[in-house]
Amino acid sequence: MRESLQPADIDSSNADAGKTRKRPRPGERRLQILQVLAEMLQNPKGERVTTAALAAKIDVSEAALYRHFASKAQMFEGLISFIEQTVFGLINQINQKEESGLAQARGILQMLLFFAEKNPGMTRVLLGDALLQEDDRLQERITQVLDRVEASLKQALRIAQTQGGTWAQLGSDEVSIRAAMLMSFVLGRWHRFARSGFKKLPTDASDVSLRLLLSE
Known about the structure:
CATH topology of the largest domain: Tetracycline Repressor, domain 2
Mean pLDDT: 87
Number of strands: 0
Radius of gyration: 20 Å
Largest sheet: none
CATH class of the largest domain: Mainly Alpha
Structural class: mainly alpha
Pfam family, one: TetR_N
CATH architecture of the largest domain: Orthogonal Bundle
Keywords: DNA-binding
Low-confidence stretches: 7-21
Domain HTH tetR-type: 27-87
Shape: elongated
Protein name: Nucleoid occlusion factor SlmA
Number of domains: 2
Region (Disordered): 1-26
Order of helices and strands: HHHHHHHHH
């Protein structure tokens, strides 16, 4: 299961690799830029990442960055796309594996906490912290991603409604309220993680918390 941004594998088959510097394969430099950007966002001080600092970290010119991305906003869109594809890919896996609505909800919540823990820089993107002073459309995009996650939780709880027990007695408004409450729990854990300099892990005692939140 892939939850963290990894660099492309480097091809070492070239016999002259030790003599000449190989050019990056297509897409390799682009992936490297996103990976280093995500790593720089892990700075506990939460300082804004500039393209100059990013270029220096990769040891290329700023002009080289813009050969792969038209703007800094496009770099952040690349990170958001990674988050979106990974999170919803995992949600689909959870839903296919679990028939119980409550098990689906629990799996989604655990995955969201674990994803943040494995990807501290991405947590700052999810919270919008890293998008401050950037293009406004980035905030709108990440809000849409979080709305879709909440909709997935709501759908899981609706399935739980059809499976008997106390959840079957909940009305549609109550299901929406519960889904929003669960999403608030996740956001709270993410904020706590980021504000602690990534020391207070979002998964700490999460089993107990989720048992209470999803109890009938």
